[in-house]
Amino acid sequence: MRVIGGEFRSRKLKSLPGMDIRPTPDRLRESLFNILAPRIEGAVFVDAYAGTGAVGIEAVSRGAARAVFLEKRREAARLIEENIASLGIEERCQVVQGSVALYLPRYPADIVFVDPPYTKPGQHEAALAVLGDAAPALVIVQHDARQQLAKEYGKLTRTRIVRQGDNALSFYTTGQEGITSSH
Description:
With about 180 residues, the protein is of the alpha/beta class. The protein has one domain (about 5-10, about 25-175): Rossmann fold (3-Layer(aba) Sandwich), CATH 3.40.50.150. The protein has helices spanning about 25-40, 55-60, 75-85, 100-105, 120-135, and strands spanning about 45-50, 65-70, 95, 110-115, 140-145, 150-155, 155-165, 165-175. The radius of gyration is 15 Å and the shape is globular. The mean pLDDT is about 90.
């Protein structure tokens, strides 16, 4: 696994073998950040259910001011810290080990990326319910392409879905400035 673009382009990231970590595929990550390009510079980015931290690290590599990584599993949180340290970006990152649903409302952000395990679809709904009340400007949810998420969660409205293979990204915004058009 590697960083796709930006300051740390092509730098390798570690992963944990045998764990229930499903890293966001490179091609999907590249599509995501092409869409986010006009919004990422200077943003505060939350990578929820961070796994290896690849998505949040990609955000920092592409100009996010700061990234917060929320991860329940201790081994994965340590791995994220190692990946951050290998790039020397500790001052721009914070790793929080614990329940994502508990910590999500505590970290206000411009962009929140949510990618819970596909085997636990209830966590998608729980995270979106919490975020619907907190209402960050943009929430992106990675999910199984066959999984149907609601169009609205509190103040959040889905404005776009991008599908690649078995994966989908659903974009939710709070206002008219949303990310639109579908693929």
